[in-house]
Amino acid sequence: MTKSALVDVLVGGTQVVAAAITAPLGRSRYNRWGATDAEVRAAMPGDDLVAAPRLGYTRALSMAAPVEGVWPWLVQMGQGRGGLYSFDALENLVGCDIHSVDRIMPEFQTLDAGDLIRMGPAGYPCFRVRLIQAPRHLVLVGADPKPPHLEATADAPAGIATWQFQLQPIAEGTATRLVVRQRLACPRSSSVMWHLVEPVGFVMERQMLLGIRDRSVGGGG
Question: Which of 1, 91, 154, 158 has the most CB within a 10 Å radius?
Fold first, then answer.
């Protein structure tokens, strides 16, 4: 394991443990990390796909780059694409095979509704693109990990989850507010499992948002 990978594991792992331990008291904070009251309340494209979520969150982060500078990093996300900009080594301990890049990759700048976004190799969680409106909105919907990776529906036995991204220009267009939301409807029997997954997801997604910010501001081309 390289030195940078070891740092990823130690830093990310420590944050995961801390989030898990404090989850009973901290979940109301990490489920709206960085978001204002108005952003938590505001409607976003994709909300209608999960009308009555059992779990969910809204998080946000400001970035000193225009939306046109943030969008390319967002659109190339995924395993086998640009990566997830989080703690790669920690994800790879569980076989995700994620390799986040520090440059915009032209071959992954085309994304259309229906395309598959993987979180890991075959058999790992994945999403289908439900809505894409460059450079402002991207809505993903959980899909079956098994081929043909059908998109989940509201009446799916295992439930349905969205992953929604919104880019809002601020500071007269010189900066961006990135808002990310998830809405999840699942059987009551799965609720405990998802509550255990929540703090892990928070740590990894927070690092992803910071990774997008740093790359966007750095302007890696």
Answer: 91
